[in-house]
Design brief:
Layout: E1 5-15, H1 21-31, E2 35-41, E3 44-52, H2 53-66, E4 72-80, E5 89-91, H3 112-118, H4 162-169, E6 190-193, H5 205-214, E7 219-222, E8 227-232, H6 236-246, E9 254-256, H7 260-266, H8 271-277, E10 284-288, E11 305-309, H9 314-320, E12 327-331, H10 343-350, E13 356-360, E14 372-376, E15 379-384, E16 394-400, E17 403-405, E18 415-424, H11 434-451, E19 457-461, H12 467-474, E20 480-483, H13 485-496, E21 503-513, E22 519-527, E23 532-538, E24 541-542, H14 548-551, H15 553-565, H16 575-579, H17 582-594, E25 600-601, H18 604-614, H19 626-634, E26 653-655, H20 657-669, H21 674-700, E27 704-708, H22 715-727, E28 731-733, H23 745-760
Parallel strand pairs: 2-5, 7-13, 9-11, 10-14, 17-19, 19-20, 21-27, 23-26, 27-28
Antiparallel strand pairs: 1-3, 1-4, 2-3, 6-13, 7-8, 8-12, 9-12, 10-11, 14-15, 16-18, 17-18, 21-22, 22-23, 24-25
Helix pairs in contact: 5-9, 13-23, 15-17, 15-18, 15-20, 18-19, 20-21, 21-22
Bound molecules: zinc ion (2 copies) and fe (iii) ion (FE).
Length: 761
């Protein structure tokens, strides 16, 4: 049989740059006896091959089957093309075309091969804190523009030495075209400085830094997506000092340990959790503490969990190899500001926090915080989706018009859509100060540039005062589509699960402006991607002092008590009342009665706060959701009693919170312990909402429930609610790619805005 010569052009779209894809193609072509070339283009990779048709078909099959670990193929198209008569197979120079559809790899942890070399005294990169190869290392945080080539990254100022260049040019080398390739003679350098910027002269800055940590000092450490503040996690005084200086009083601090064996000394680790810890994304994983606590109490006070991660850069590995149980690694910022990324900026902003600075001279182009995940209801749930995951897109059910969605106010992210892809940005933070607002602008510009997306519309929240909404309103050229907060929550969950038909959306969170001008947050919606109907909600109560009521749950306690028993509350015999300043308390109750500076809210987050304060947990919080979290943490036992959960038969069913509060007060007065009240309260909500959803399901002929909103970070609530809904025969959908909290709002906004544009087109 005579083989017929054939030439084919293969265009591949996906994460195919900077992940060892071209050398893989080079070797695969050789294995199949093909000639031709492969080239990075702005839209991905284009391959020209010449051989027999059968050889080429087998080659194409192998591309998908054997691709490198970090590569993701979204589209592969091949077509017959002109025979050019190539004599060999080669990797051609990149071209910058007019389209930029290529996907960029996220930053991933240093691979096993590089780690072996890092600790091998015979290797030329022994102890080199920037070791990487095509299978690992920084990507998203060092890229300025595409195509992804060294001059477009922050490795640009470092010229490769002859040895590194030879590796870079050798298609058989693991570092072939590894853009951040370097060694200790040509690559970035570490340096140790004091807060005045003076260099501490020492032979090995990392070993010296480890010693300083062991002595209880606080270090600012430049990492991959920004600075960390590091301190020995077993030294209570040192951790306390970090908290004081950072103005972070109680929020748990993340820790890093060298390996899984060390982590299992102080935390319970299931096989799923150890796989997560060890994944290339290296997120912070919430792990149950082993008791008695082995780390300093102040690492995660009043919490059953530690946030734990494994090292992800070679620098972390070198630092952690110096004999620590765990090192606190918390974002290098003042509370509520974005993480610092620049050396001078870090000195300026962190000089009153850190005792020493461990710097290096490779720039971070775009900051990216550590991601946080946990296992709940049988799957991995992101709490913060950032480093390691961004900018991998979520794939939507169908192609939609391009939209830029600006997110909400807290835990802000933005989202850009293109075709079937939705790109959610890294965690931007709480849009409450100028520094975060600047980071918000920067991220929008950067993402639009590297993804080459020109949105046709901008989506934002209904709330006119959010900085994200105000920014959207100032973009004169594009139509702005405002989306109700809880509708966005529900749509985000729908988008992930490829649902577009009507669902029951259970949106339970702290705060979001409702379409009636009041504050919502305990909502049962019937929704599709364009519209929603408010089928049920918690009975609204006043929030005396507005935002102050979020910081001071005792105000919400009084509001619920007044709502439940009017002036009788003073005779309820609750211990809480004795702890409060009577004249202040009377003013608050008066505000509730008059409605003065007391907007109405149906928020479940506030109900959690109120109950936490009524049972005596805390009257003030140091961070949003703290009281609710502590109420969850104290729940114990499997009590079978429930509080009454009733609703009205109005078009929007109103859930009677009086009955629940009256039950809680009654229990307290009878001396029922708070941990029992907590478990009863959780089960009441789970079964009560499930019963309500069951009724709405019948009325509207819907059997799918989408759960969303920050309250579902409460694992007990999520798991008991899922169980109760399933028992009603309803299918339950829970976010697993985007966070269930406001970090997922941008995705929901984007999907709703795009669906409305298509409907109205
Ligand atoms: Zn590697
Ligand atoms: Zn070198
Ligand atoms: Fe929310």
């Amino acid at each position: 049989m005579t083989a017929v010569n054939s030439a084919r052009q293969i265009d591949i779209n996906g994460i195919v740059q900077g992940v060892g894809f071209r050398p893989f193609i080079f070797q695969l072509a050789a294995a199949h006896g093909l000639r031709g070339q492969v080239v990075n283009t702005a839209s991905g990779v284009t391959i020209h091959v010449e051989g027999t048709s059968a050889q080429i078909d087998a080659f194409i099959d192998d591309i998908s089957a054997k691709k490198p670990p970090l590569a993701t193929i979204v589209e592969l198209q091949d077509a017959e093309t002109k025979w050019r008569g190539h004599e060999d197979f080669r990797i051609a120079k990149s071209t910058a075309g007019d389209t930029r559809a290529t996907l960029i790899s996220p930053d991933v942890c240093v691979c096993a091969d590089c780690r072996r070399e890092l600790f091998d005294p015979a290797d030329r990169r022994y102890g080199f804190p920037f070791i990487n190869c095509t299978n690992c290392g920084p990507r998203y945080t060092i890229i300025n523009d595409i195509p992804y080539d060294r001059p477009k990254t922050s490795m640009h100022p470092f010229t490769m030495c002859a040895a590194c260049q030879a590796e870079y040019d050798d298609p058989n080398n693991r570092r072939f075209h590894a853009q951040p390739n370097a060694c200790s003679s040509c690559g970035p350098k570490m340096m140790l400085r004091d807060p005045s910027g003076q260099t501490i002269v020492c032979e090995d800055p990392i070993a010296q830094a480890a010693e300083l940590l062991q002595d209880g000092h606080i270090l600012a450490v430049k990492g991959l997506g920004g600075f960390h503040l590091a301190v020995d996690a077993t030294n209570d005084a040192a951790v306390e000092r970090l908290r004081r200086r950072k103005h972070r009083e109680e929020k748990p601090l993340a820790v890093m340990s060298a390996d899984l064996a060390i982590i299992s000394r102080y935390a319970e680790v299931t096989p799923e959790e150890s796989a997560l810890l060890d994944s290339i994304q290296r997120p912070i994983v919430l792990l149950a503490k082993k008791l008695p606590e082995k780390l300093a109490f102040s690492v995660a006070p009043h919490n059953r969990y530690y946030g734990v991660m494994l090292p992800y850069t070679p620098l972390h590995y070198l630092l952690l190899s110096q004999g620590f149980t765990a090192v606190v690694m918390t974002s290098g910022n003042l509370s509520e500001e974005p993480i610092a990324i620049d050396n001078d900026e870090a000195l300026r902003r962190l000089k009153d926090i850190a005792d020493y600075f461990l710097f290096h001279d490779r720039d971070i182009i775009l900051r990216s915080d550590d991601s946080i995940v946990r296992r709940a209801a049988g799957e991995t749930r992101p709490i913060r989706r950032s480093r390691g995951y961004v900018p991998i897109p979520l794939f939507l059910k169908e192609a939609l018009p391009s939209v830029l969605a600006c997110g909400a106010e807290l835990k802000n992210t933005v989202c850009l859509t293109k075709g079937r892809q939705a790109f959610i940005s890294q965690h931007i933070g709480d849009l409450e100060n100028m520094a975060t607002e600047e980071f918000f602008h920067l991220t929008i510009d950067h993402l639009q540039r590297i993804l080459n997306i020109q949105p046709k519309a901008i989506a934002c929240d209904l709330h006119p005062d959010y900085l994200s909404t105000q920014w959207a309103r100032h973009q004169a050229r594009l139509p702005v589509i405002a989306v109700q907060h809880h509708h966005a929550h529900v749509a985000a969950c729908m988008a992930e699960h490829h649902l577009d038909g009507p669902v029951i959306g259970l949106a339970l969170d702290g705060t979001g402006l409702g379409s009636d001008g009041t504050i919502w947050g305990g909502e049962v919606l019937v929704a599709d991607t364009t519209r929603f109907l408010r089928a049920g909600c918690l009975d609204p109560v006043p929030m005396p002092g507005s935002a102050a009521a979020i910081r001071e749950p005792w105000r919400m306690a009084l509001s619920y008590l007044h709502h439940t028993m009017g002036d009788q509350l003073w005779h309820s015999g609750l211990p809480l009342l004795e702890r409060l300043d009577r004249s202040k308390a009377e003013i608050i109750v008066q505000m509730c009665a008059d409605g003065f500076n007391a907007p109405m809210t149906s928020s479940l987050g506030r109900l959690f706060d109120g109950v936490a304060a009524i049972v005596g947990l805390r009257t003030k919080v140091a961070y949003e959701g703290q009281a609710a979290m502590e109420l969850e943490m104290m729940a114990q036992g499997a009590d079978s009693e429930r509080y009454p959960f009733r609703w009205t038969s109005a078009a929007t069913r109103r859930i009677d919170v009086k009955a629940i509060i009256a039950g809680v007060v009654d229990d307290l007065v009878r001396g029922v312990p708070a941990y029992v009240i907590s478990i009863k309260f959780h089960h009441t909500l789970a079964e009560g909402f499930a019963a309500l959803c069951g009724e709405i399901a019948k009325t509207h002929q819907i059997d799918r429930v989408a759960l969303s909103g920050g309250c579902f970070q409460n694992r007990l609530l999520l798991e008991s609610m899922t169980e109760a809904l399933s028992e009603k025969g309803l299918s339950v959908f829970i976010p697993r790619m985007a966070p269930v909290n406001d970090g997922g709002i941008s995705l929901g906004q984007a999907v709703i805005a795009a669906a409305r544009m298509r409907r109205d087109a």
